[in-house]
Design goal:
mainly alpha, 0% strand
Length: 387
């Protein structure tokens, strides 16, 4: 499951060092336009889930994963053959649509097999391995860029994806048995939405996922711009990015250790408080907009992402807990809503990240507070014994 999700991470993060070169090659004039190469793949990820999630509830998980990967292959060919930036964006959206299948269905497969805090433990381990890809992906991208060209990054993604698909075909059994499948109908998705909205926790934690993912996506789409252009650290960028990814990975590992003992609700709540507090502290200290020293900035990022690591896996598990009977559609709606929320958040905040990191932390603060308020609202509606 981690390997399936890691195809998504590699497709996003390996491209980061090459954004400027791709933009120059395809004739962009505004550096902020290059951020679209990152954010638009998330748009495809969001919409693709609405198709593949419901289909997997009717036809099984594995066949739909294969169909999604075929779409990804076609989209990758578009990306490496185009000479137009607009067509490249279309290719990235299609890549996202194709990758939405393994990304969403890996969560549905886990939900088919586990529930409760143990599901959160499994998802934390999956996310931890998944996070290792951003540790090496920018370095891999920079290596390919130095010795080959930016197109080679797409070819390596394809080769990696084919290997994972062969492993998935050979080793992963189908987790949705035929007797548990939902008959495919034209109103299947509408019925799934009606069922989804019955559960306040599913709705609430989906919104929190959108808030956290959106603010974090701003970092993904602007990190190259921040470290290479604002701090003139082009050579160090892959190593800085990797070190911050390790911070998230360590937190997700610790979450997998402690979540069964302390519960996913409590850990997520405390981590959200930390996420909001750290970002607000940065905004107070550096309100003038002048960037701090690189050591201070990395320290704040590391603390921020350490908090994120305790939230990511748990939020999905919290949202999916009441949706075991519609795991495919549930994972699709959860992923779609959170992603469609995240993309405009990232595009809007990212447009302000030109010569200062402050807008990024203002975004962290606003959406950290909104996430915390959502937790508080849901907490008031829960019996204390369930928290």
């Amino acid at each position: 499951m981690a390997s399936l999700m890691s195809i998504v991470a590699l497709s996003i993060d390996a491209l980061l060092p090459a954004l400027s070169e791709i933009g120059n090659s395809l004739g962009t004039t505004n550096a902020n336009d290059n951020q679209l190469l990152i954010t638009m793949i998330f748009l495809g990820l969001g919409f693709g889930q609405l198709v593949f999630g419901p289909l997997s509830d009717s036809f099984g998980r594995k066949p739909i994963v294969y169909i999604g990967f075929i779409v990804f292959v076609i989209a990758s060919i578009i990306c490496v053959t185009t000479k137009s930036f607009e067509m490249m964006i279309i290719g990235r959206i299609l890549q996202g649509i194709g990758l939405s299948s393994p990304r969403t269905l890996s969560i549905a497969i886990v939900r088919d097999s586990y529930s409760g805090d143990y599901m959160a433990k499994i998802l934390s381990i999956v996310v931890m391995v998944f996070i290792l890809v951003p540790v090496i992906a920018p370095t891999l991208g920079q290596f390919l860029l130095n010795f080959y060209n930016w197109e080679s990054i797409f070819y390596v993604n394809l080769i990696y994806g084919v290997l994972i698909m062969l492993w998935f075909w050979k080793r992963q059994p189908e987790t949705l048995q035929k007797e548990k499948r939902i008959k495919f109908t034209s109103h299947q998705f509408i019925d799934g939405v009606k069922e989804f909205v019955k559960y306040k926790d599913a709705i609430g934690f989906t919104f929190v996922s959108g808030f956290i993912t959106g603010s974090f996506m701003v970092y993904l789409s602007t990190s190259q711009q921040i470290f290479q252009e604002q701090y003139n650290l082009a050579d160090m960028f892959p190593y800085i990015f990797a070190s911050l990814a390790i911070s998230i990975g360590l937190a997700t590992y610790l979450n997998s250790v402690f979540v069964v003992k302390y519960g996913m609700w409590r850990i997520s709540y405390l981590a959200t408080i930390a996420y909001a507090f750290i970002s607000i502290l940065y905004v107070i200290l550096f309100w003038t907009g002048e960037n701090p020293g690189i050591g201070i900035l990395i320290s704040f990022f590391a603390l921020q992402f350490f908090a994120v690591g305790f939230v990511f896996g748990n939020l999905r598990a919290l949202a999916m807990q009441p949706l075991g009977h519609i795991a495919g559609i549930g994972a699709a709606i959860n992923g779609f809503v959170s992603t469609v929320m995240a993309v405009p958040i990232a595009n809007y905040i990212g447009s302000f990240v030109t010569d200062s990191v402050l807008p990024l932390f203002i975004g962290f603060s606003v959406f950290g507070v909104l996430s915390l308020l959502t937790f508080i609202i849901l907490k008031r509606k829960k019996p204390l014994s369930n928290i």
